[in-house]
Amino acid sequence: MADGVAGVLFVLGALFSLVAAIGLLRFPDVLTRMHSAAKPQVLGLILITVGVGLRLRDPSVVALLGLVVLFQLVTAPVASHMIGRAAVRGGRVRTDLLEVDELSERQDDVEEPRGAP
């Protein structure tokens, strides 16, 4: 039974990763691509690691997979935030696609040095 559930989780995780890859190619701007790279990709990774844990059923492997998921959950939002911040600062955001732009008024007043962040 656990092997069947693991197989279903593998397929679902692979589909979420495929959706993330298609989103990276098809979405028009940095912010929507960033969303596609972070959300479904992390969910796909979680589903695949849970499937591996169910398939192997070894406590040390499950602990290691738990660390992989934990680090991915910690680093993916930070990386997405930094990419979005760099895109806004670099003027790479298409403001015509935004419904709400809370940073435009603040960005005009801030004078930041260019170069390394």
From TrEMBL:
Q: Which UniProt keywords apply?
A: Membrane, Transmembrane, Transmembrane helix
Q: Which Pfam families match?
A: PhaG_MnhG_YufB (PF03334)
Q: Which domain of life is it from?
A: Bacteria
Q: Which InterPro entries match?
A: PhaG_MnhG_YufB
Q: Which residues cross the membrane?
A: 6-25, 37-56, 62-84
Q: Which PANTHER family match?
A: ANTIPORTER SUBUNIT MNHG2-RELATED
What protein family is recorded?
A: Belongs to the CPA3 antiporters (TC 2.A.63) subunit G family.
Record protein name field: Na(+)/H(+) antiporter subunit G
Provide the organism lineage as a comma list: Bacteria, Bacillati, Actinomycetota, Actinomycetes, Propionibacteriales
